[in-house]
Amino acid sequence: MSQEDHKLRQRIRYRHVEKIYKDLEELGYHDNDPLKVTDLITLDQWHYFGLEPVDAAIKLLDVREGARVLDVGAGIGGASRYLAHKTKCHVTAAELLPDNHRVGQDLTSRCGMTGSVKHVCGDIITTELGKQEFDHVMSFQVILYVEDKPRLFRQLYDSLKPGGTIFFEEFYRLKDVENSDEQAALDFFLLCVNTMPTQQDYKQLLEDAGFQVTVHDNSDAYSEYTHGRWENWDQQRDKYVRLYGEDMVDGWLKLIVTTKKLCNEFGLVGGGRFLARKV
Ligand SMILES: C[S@@+](CC[C@H](N)C(=O)[O-])C[C@H]1O[C@@H](n2cnc3c(N)ncnc32)[C@H](O)[C@@H]1O
C-alpha cells in the first residue's frame, strides 16, 4: 500500500478528531480558553486503560526531569503532555495525520506547554529522528499500523542514546486465524497493514534490531476492557448520538464491536507491553 493510501485510511478512522472540542464545551470551556493538563486527561488518551500505561511507562523507563523522550504516533498529544507534566521531561510528539497534529499543537499551546512538548507531523518511517537524540521512546497502540516494522525498530534504535530504552503498548495476535469471520474482523481492525504480529514476533523484531527485551502480557485486561467498552456504548448509544451525532457513533461502534469480537469471542487478539534496552 502506498504511503498516501495508508494516510487516507488512517484519516478515515480518526476523522472525529474535533470531538475533544465538544467534550471541552461540555466541561464549560470556550474556544481558546487556557486549559489544564489535568482536565484533559480523561479526554485526550487515545489508547486503552487511560493514564495507567503512561504511568507504567514512566516507571519502567525511569523517566527523569530533563530527559528527552520521543512519543511515536502521538495522536492529539495526550500521553506526551501528561508525561512532560508529570516528569518535567522534554517530549517530541510525532504524529502522522495533519489534523491530529494541529489539534495536539492547539491543546499543548493552551496548556502553556510549548516549551516541553514539541509536535512534529509525518510518517514515523520517514521522519528525521536524528542519531542518539533520545533517552527514551514510548508508543501507545500505534506500531501495529506501521508496515515496515523491522525498519521502524532499526530507526528507533539509532535514535536512542546508548543504554536508551523503549516502551510500547500494543495489540498482538494470540493464535492463527481459523475462519473467514475472524479474518474479516482482523482485516477491518488492521486497516492499512496485512498482518498482526504475535508477541514472539515483536520480541524477535526488537532483538533483531539490537534491543534486549522484556514482555508483560496484558491480554486478560484487553478482553475485559473491550467487552466493558462495548457494553457501555451499546447501552448509552442514544446519549452519545445526541452528543456526537449518528455518523460518529456508528463509526465507533463498528470498531468497538470488532475489537470486542477479536479480544473476547474469537480469542484472536490480546495485547501487552514491551520494554527494550539499547545494548
Ligand atoms: C490509537 S491512536 C493512539 C494515539 C496516541 N498514541 C494515544 O495513545 O493517545 C494511533 C495513532 O497513530 C498514528 N499513526 C498511525 N500510523 C502512523 C505512522 N506511520 N507514523 C506516525 N503516526 C502514525 C495515527 O494517526 C493515530 O493518531
Per-chain topology:
Blueprint: H1 3-13, H2 19-26, H3 37-40, H4 52-61, E1 68-72, H5 78-87, E2 90-95, H6 98-110, E3 117-121, E4 134-140, H7 149-159, E5 160-173, H8 180-190, H9 199-208, E6 211-217, H10 219-235, H11 237-244, H12 246-265, E7 269-278
Parallel strand pairs: 1-2, 1-4, 2-3, 4-5
Antiparallel strand pairs: 5-7, 6-7
Helix pairs in contact: 8-12, 10-12, 11-12
S-adenosylmethionine binds next to helix 5 and strand 2.
Structure description:
Keywords: Transferase. InterPro entries: Erg6_SMT_methyltransf, SAM-dependent_MTases_sf. GO terms for molecular function: transferase activity. Belongs to the class I-like SAM-binding methyltransferase superfamily. Erg6/SMT family. This is Phosphoethanolamine N-methyltransferase 1-like. This protein has 279 residues and is an alpha/beta fold. It has a single domain (3-175, 197-222, 270-278), classed as Rossmann fold, CATH 3.40.50. The protein contains 12 helices and 7 strands. It has a 7-stranded mixed sheet, sandwiched between helices. The mean pLDDT is 95. It binds S-adenosylmethionine.
